[in-house]
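Meet the record:
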Amino acid sequence: MSTGQIDQALALLDASHHELHQQRQALTETSQALTRVAAAVEHHAGPDAPLSIGELADYLGIRTSALRVWEHAGLLAPARQTSRRHRVYDSEDVRDARIIHLLRQGRYRFDRIRPIITELRGSKSADALQAALTERRTSLTHRARAMLDGAALLQQHITEFIASDAPAPSEPVTGS
């Protein structure tokens, strides 16, 4: 191991810790945002439904194609106007779209979002959502502990390397 390799290893460690920190911040922001969304839904805050696909996309600050992808993935199920088959989003669709959008910003995959939305639609409960957030928080904690263990081993290795590279202490000269 060289000094350059030590610097490189420490830089990688710093980058990993930074990424983990960003993920924790995103989780916190997602949790807070979802709490606000749930409160807003209870108080009927948000735009007046029904909305067209363009209106909902504008409200969320996303493209209409994202809403179509979410619908294709089974996350949204807007009604269709009978005359022209245009999508019409009611207040529950708007709530679901807001939650999907927030979860996607938190890097949640569709397969993790689907049971959350299904539970919200069926039982009006946020238990699946809370379970997903708790699971993610637990996962980040496990990762942080593993990184801490890895950092301790790296420190031990670097310390041993530096000690082996140091010149041996000189022997006292004794006269005969």
Remarks:
- The beta strands are 79-80, 87-88.
- The mean pLDDT is 83.
